[in-house]
Amino acid sequence: MMVKEYFSGIKLRFSVGDQMTGWQRLEKGIVTGCTISVVLFVMGMNLIINAAKRETRGPKTSSGIYLPSTRGFMDDLTITARTHVQARWMLSALEDVATWARMKFKPKKSRSLIIKRGQPTKKFTLKVQDQEIPSLMDSPIKCLGKWYDASLQDVNSIQRIKTQLNEGLKLIDKTGLPGKYKAWLFQNGLLPRLMWPLMLYEITTSTVEGLERTISRHLRRWLGVPPSFSNIGLYGKSNQLQIPLSSLVEEYKVAKARLVMTLKDSRDQYVSRAGVETRTGRKWSASQAVAQAESRLRHKDIVGTTAVGRSGFGTTQAKRWGTADRGERREMIQKDIRQSEEEERMTRAVAMGSQGAWTKWQTTERKLTWADMFHSEPFRLRFLLRSVYDLLPSPANLCRWGKSDTPACPLCSQTGTMEHILSSCKLALTQGRYRWRHDSVLRDLADILERERKKKRTGRKQGGIQFVKEGETASAPRRQHDSILNHAKEWEMSVDLGRKLVFPNIVQTSLRPDIVLWSENHKCVAMVELTVPWETRCEEAFERKTAKYRELELLCRDKGWKTWLFPVEIGARGFPAKSIWNMLSAFGIIGRERKNAVGRLGKTAERASCWLWLKREEKSWKPTADT
User: Fold this and answer.
1) Which of 119, 165, 393, 617 could form a disulfide with 410 if both were Cys (CB 3.0 to 4.6 A apart)?
2) Is the pLDDT assigned to residue 233 strictly greater than 90?
């Protein structure tokens, strides 16, 4: 009686522009924000479902269990029976309960499908509330993002996915935007729209690989790279240069694995025990991939957490399969499948000659973000992508591709490979081209250290005991990173720009490190020697510069000075070596500030190399201040 009185007094009115209707009594519907309405709706739907469930039980699956004959999702019902007679009984029961509840079905929005001896038939018809339910053979229907038709196959839906992809790529291509913005539209607009149907339909892996080839052709054209540009460069996540693009095949496999885990780990026993098979073709099996991933994760539990590098015991807290819940296990399976795909890409990259040369680099990786790509000039972005995978039109490449008769360097008679032009040409070295690039990076490095030097410092403080009064809680002390600059309050700095550096009056030497910082009062000196070598020679450059300045370092220490030596390297294409990260940390530049500083130095080296590439055929070299 209380609920009846509550709903009998609900009134509402509508406004359109400046016009307002009068109050009207609510007779049907669910009131927004009313919790009682939702509870009553669920109770009413359960009454309707249970009324039909008593008539017959559902079909028997291959695993031996009987599925429910009636299933509901919100206000939609699905009825499954073994014969059309049983279906009529269930519809009759539903009609009686719905009529008693003063509810109506919508036959025109419903569909029926009767299968006889494995083939759909229209010999029998089904009705509800004296209206015929249309057959699925006449009009397919879309439910929860999936199309259903009388063919009982996904051939038409797969063709619809291909059409959607091709039309989407054409629409993006016709926007008139720069290529990098078109790539962003695909990654954040078209790709998410494709993932739901790819997960639902039984589409083979080979078909998805064909779709990815179509996508890759458009991405290469938009990014300005040649058709020979490998998919590893587009989608690799452990490359030296990583682009924010996702592989359609990888996302498809992860989605199928997630579907397998969702069905297998469902809390509904009718779903978990139904034995639903996720078909993905003969080339790759989602069920087998999930089983292999589970086996690897259980093996990791047996092995335990291993220490990597200089990290101590207990530094890394890894999730364990044995203690993870359903959601965490699902995430672990997806992560393992992604790692398997990346391992396969790395295996193919190692076997490649020119485009896989980055696997031998001795530098740290660069991850391009969309912001980096948006702020980069189109030519510079093309230069970076092509230079990393040795696809620039160097004389050696043009001769190999049949576009030129000789592979000679424009400045000398040696073979004009990309490495030779950007790092090893003797005439370019004599003209000062490489010195100009080195000084460009050195100028930015000096600016970074100068800003750090000018910061106010209080010197090194000895840690004391912090006493806490009774009843109070001690605040966690803020961790301060140690810095070389904390050893003294007043530092001087000199930079070897224009070959004008004079070593401080500590020892007599003819050596000129690129940057020297020293403090006369505290007898502290730090030397930084910058090299911009080819990425494969960073370790060699580090050892060479260490040996060159070792004697100077020992002489300064013999004079009673605290001495630090930092040979650092930035690759010719802007990839920093580990030494540059360590040097910045030693000077107290950490966190985001260090990341931005390294990115700035890398971009400067890349920009300078791009300019050297543009001027590779000019015999004379006269750099300007604007260059």
Assistant:
1) 617
2) yes
In this prediction the pTM is 0.84
Q: Which of 431, 390, 438, 443 is nearest to 616 (CA)?
A: 431
Query: Mean pLDDT, to the nearest integer, of 415-434?
Result: 92
Q: From the CB of residue 458, how many other CB atoms can be counted at a distance below 10 Å?
A: 7
pLDDT digits (tens, 9 = 90+) for 325-365: 888 999 999 999 999 999 999 999 999 888 989 998 989 99
What's 361-430 look like in SS3?
A: CCCCCEECCHHHHHHCCHHHHHHHHHHHCCCCCCHHHHHHCCCCCCCECCCCCCECCHHHHHHHCHHHHH
Dihedral angle over CA of 53, 59, 62, 64, nearest 10: 50
Cα–Cα nearest to 342, from 254, 222, 261, 229 = 254
Q: Specify the DSSP element, H or E, that contains 562.
A: strand 562-569
Q: Give the integer Cα–Cα distance in Å for 388 and 494.
A: 34
- Please report the DSSP string for 256-281 in residue order: HHHHHHHHHT-SSHHHHTS-------
Q: Quote the Cα angle for 76-82-88, to 5°.
A: 60
Two tokens, residue 369: 């973000």
- For 462-477, how does the pLDDT look when each residue is reduced to its tens digit (9 = 90+)? 556 677 777 777 665 5
R_g over Cα of the chain: 35
In whole angstroms, give the CA distance from residue 245 to residue 230. Answer: 13
Token pair of 364 as six digits: 């740290």
According to the model, what pLDDT value does residue 37 have? Answer: 77
Of 267, 263, 288, 285, the closest CA to residue 275 belongs to: 263
Percent over 90 (pLDDT), the chain = 51
DSSP state of 107: G
- At 478 the pLDDT is 56
Contact between 212 and 224 (Cβ < 8 Å): no
Asked if 449 and 556 count as a contact pair (C-beta separation under 8 A), the reply is: no
- CA separation for the pair 321, 177 (Å, rounded): 46
Q: Which of 259-268, 524-533, 604-613 has the lowest mean pLDDT?
A: 259-268
Share of the chain above pLDDT 70, in %: 94
Strand segments, DSSP code E, in 112-256 are: 114-116, 119-121, 127-128, 131-132, 141-143, 146-148, 241-242
